[in-house]
Amino acid sequence: MESFWQRLRLNRFIVLGRVGMDLYADPPGTKIEDATRYISAIGGSAGNIAVALARQGSQAALLTRVSADAVGRYCVAELDRYGVDTRLIRASGGETRTSLAVVETRPTDAQTVLYRNGAADFALTESDVAAIDFHETGALIVTGTALAREPSRGATQLAIRQARQAGAVVVLDLDYRAYSWASREEAARICLEAAEAAHVVVGNDDEFGLLAGSHDRGAGLAQDLAQHGALFTVYKRGQLGSVSFLPDREFQTGIFRVDALKPMGAGDGFMGGLMAGLAQGHDLETSVQRGAATAAIIVAGIGCAPASPDTATLDDFIQRP
After folding, report:
1. Which of 30, 102, 135, 254 lies at a 20 to 30 A Cα distance from 303?
2. Tens digits of per-residue pLDDT, 304-316?
3. How far apart, in whole angstroms, are the C-alpha atoms of residue 197 and residue 71?
């Protein structure tokens, strides 16, 4: 297991999953139906994670597909601007479309309207993955949504196998979105298989509960995965913070209290801050704390990627009284 901790120090990540375009009703607090203007930002769990990593000094490449249109090109251009490697992104033609979300910057009752029929990222294929060399990659981070549909599911499963064979750390963000799956039963089965193949599994109490068969058994599953092959798992509990399980111990981490502007983006920021911290040599306790701090900063800002902190901002936030 020690070799996997060292492998993370390569500080090079491939993130597999969705990037999309978000349109935020502006100014903050405005409802969608009342808005006369919007501000744009990239979104999508994998895109947000890749940005968080890049902002905190890691090398991050996004592996996905976008539509061969202006919205797809917008997402690639924004990723480039944030310093994310876009060379593994392919464009899909036909009727596929890059995910679009119309959202509100409101701490409660925030409406989100999603346009994801024929989502381009679900068009990722095994051929997109087959030629990738994972030998110089520290970790592959997979978001669970990528497992929801074919051909993306098969491509993601292939990426997990290739990364493991190359000695890279496989990280799974459970990222369960019910609307993406045919059924809860299918999601539980497919995501559990991926969790059992991963070295790190991060999810909230509902997501682990889904995989375990009931909410009450979720924490037990997270602990069991850590005791039977995983480096560690993180069981997130919202306002109660998180519990991290390792093969021989566990520890709790609280949240950072902020005046939230919106509820979304916290999980993506948590993953980015956590993995960037480990890659930069911080211990697990410190890295989980950095993930929690990144999440807090993002929910207190406008947008997800635009609110993602750089290392200096994150350090200052953590050290504040």
Report:
1. 254
2. 999 999 999 999 9
3. 34
